[in-house]
Structure formats: C-alpha cells, structure tokens
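Field notebook, page 465. I keep forgetting to write these up properly, so this time I am using the form the group agreed on. The chain and the ligand, zinc ion, are recorded exactly as supplied. Prediction of the bound pose follows.
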Amino acid sequence: MPAVAAVPCRRRGGRGRRPGRPGRGDRVELYLGRYLDFLYDTFRLARTELETRTRFTALQDELDAAMVAFRPEVGGSRTTRAQVSILLRTEPDRTRRREAYLSRAEASASLVQRMRELLEVSNALHRQMGFAGTVEGRLAQSGLERDEVEAWLAEVEQATREPYAELLERARAELGVERVEAWDLDYWLEQAGSYPASAFPKAEAVARLKATIRGWGLDPDALPVTIEEANLSNSGWNIPVRIPGDVRLVLNPTDGFPFYSTLFHEYGHALHESGIAQDVGTFRSDRPGQFGEGMAVTVERLTGMREWQRRVAGLDEATIERAAGVERWRKVRRLRSLVAKCRFHYAAFDDPSADLAALESRLSEELLGVPGPERPLWADDMFLAQPQIYVQNYVIAELIAAQVWEALRRRFAPDPTADPGVGPFLREAFWRHGQARDWRELIAEATGRPLDARALVRELTGTEP
Ligand SMILES: [Zn+2]
C-alpha cells in the first residue's frame, strides 16, 4: 500500500515529493495548498455578475421542473418516462416503439427556446469566471482539461467502432429489418437476453453483497452504511447524509442481474464515502464526479467477473459465455451513446445558435449508425440543465475502473474477487483520502501509471495487456 507523501499543489506549482510520511509542517502546507484550490473556485464564482447568476439559476430551475412534470403521450394517453423506456425495451410492435421514442419531441419543442438561452447565459457566466467557455470551465472545476477528455472520447469511439458495426448488423439481421432505427436497439438487446434472472434473486442480493465484501477483507456490518428499501422509480440511490459517519442506500429490489449491478455500484459509492478519513471538512467528499463514479464502477464490476459469477451466482461456463457476449454489446452501445451525448453537449455550449437539430441528427448517423429523430429531441435533456457538465464522467469512470481492475488482477492473483487484501488496498489507496489528494495521483500510485484509455480499449477490443 502506498505511503502518504507530501504532494505539490497543482495550481501553485510543484515543490518536489519528499519520501516517507509527511511531518506536521508538510501536512499543513499540503492541506493549505489543496484548500486554496477549492477557495480559488469559489472566488471565480464571486467575479460573476449577479444578474447573470440569477438568470442562470432561474432557467435551470424552470427547465428542470418542466422536464420532471412532462408526461409523454403514447397511444392517445399520457404516461410516464419510465413506462416509455419499458415500451422501448419490450414492445414488439415497431410502430408503437417509434411513437414511444418520439414522444419526447413534444417536451423538446416546448423547451428549446429556454434551453438555448440557458446555453448562452451559461457561456456568459463562465466567461465572467475567466474561462474560455462553459465546457472548459466546468471541466476545470472537476480537475479535467478539455483536450484530454476529447482524446479519451476519441479512443473510446475508435475502440467501439468495429464491435458496434457488428452489433448493428446482428440487430438488423435478427430483427429482419432493412435499416435499424433508434427505437429498435433497446428492444433487440432485451430479446438477446442476459443472465437468467433466477440466478440473481432479489431476496439474496444484500446477503451476497455482504459476503463478497467480507471476502474482500472488510466487515460490512461494522460500516456506517444502512440499506433501506423504498418504492422508487429507479432501482437504487446512494445518499451520503454525513461523510463518513452516515451513508445510506435506498433500494427498490428486483430479480435479475441489473439490480445486482446497481446494488454493487451504489455500495461502491458507500464504501468510498464511509472510508473517507479526513479531519478537514472540505476534504470529506468523494468528488470530483469522475473519481466518485470510478470508485463505484470498480465495485460494480465485481458482478461482471467470471470468478464471482461462478462462485456467488452459481452460473455455468456456457451461460456466462452467452450472457457476457450480450453484456458486451450493451456496454459498447452505452459507451457510444455517451460519446455522442458528450459531443453534442460540448458543441451545443460552443455555439448555442447553431442548428442543434441538425447536429443531433448528424451525431446519431455518425456515432450510433441510425437516422436522427424526425422531430428534434435534444432540448429534453436533464444533463444540459445541470450545474455541472457530467456525461463524460461515466466514460472516465469506465476508464478508471478498467485500469484499477488491471492493477487488482496483477496484485491479487489468482482471484481478486475473493482476496481479503483488496478491501484494505482500495481503502488505503483511494477511499481514505477524500479530496485531500489529487485523484490523478491516487490512480497513478495505485495502478503504476497515470490514467489512460488503454485498459478499457484492451477490454473492448479483446486484446491482451
Ligand atoms: Zn454512481
């Protein structure tokens, strides 16, 4: 496990790393440096004009409220967004799926004008803060630079291109259609199947999770993490009430693999948050977003590991092989959709006055291989109205988790899904630091190199390290 060394502050320039544990003076300097980093962001916001800030917040609230209130119309009656996504996965009638897919166009049309204004106001706000634009400003607040994020997105796009083309061809052949449309893919993937739900009973999910965590050398019953059940519209949330002392998961259990993935993901957030050991309140946080998500996906990935699936879910090799193939399609599709969404967001902020409906269509053709929507959908997008720019975090989280798992496989052979060294390692290498250390340095120290896309690309293309 890595020694905690004094770290040069990012913005104040490096002072060279000193060996061994830092003395009190070093620690004060280290903390002060990091603390100033956070204050710096606060000062930037103070430079903005009150009028711009007020308009920005008002627009965000309005758009958010309108999106939450929207009830899409399908088959002549109003329904929920959750019901639309169920229809897209399960409705055999293609015309009805098309109608479900386009039901968001009504919301988009009603939001488009205010959304454009939000993009403009956001740009003004970020320029007042001294950034080139919204994308640069919001990424900088998460310790990211636009060039590196775009380079990662390009690598993921490249690595998924071939498998995605295969996926489209398979879907086309199996659905017996001339051209795959946007409303066909969820349905085809659902038909292609996954792990048998019977191997993932909801009643055993929490007990299996806890047994797995015990196998990683941690005692889940000693952690300040409580698990409650509630009737939610999704399958679960992580709520850090107080870090590290009171972390809660609220779950809506269902039988099947997807719920197990969600449970392990949310529990990954909980392990991270409850593992933060920092005296300074500012550092008791699991941010930045890409790092918090990376820690969650690292734990979520347990459910996708063959050793775990054999041992805990009792699956045989043939079932694992077949389902893993479908899960890989899902991942390829998800990553390409995320890349498309990021590209759209960045371009929309770069030029809010551009023809964004045409951009939506072009990205759909280029990245997803399906015709763009007949009516624009782009303005109906919760992510655009958020105070952060967030979608790249899901891609970066996959980069982080892939690289961390490569390191775990090296360090905890032969089976990192059941090695009691893994939990303490993750706690020391990542969780305990909170924001007192730069997330990049933690990854470089724990995995032996700075974060890059190589591990994920190897996974996606099936090449050996
Ligand atoms: Zn998450």
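OBSERVATIONS:
- Residues 5 and 356 are 48 Å apart (CA to CA).
- Residues 1-22 have pLDDT under 50 and may be disordered.
FOLLOW-UP: compare against the apo run.
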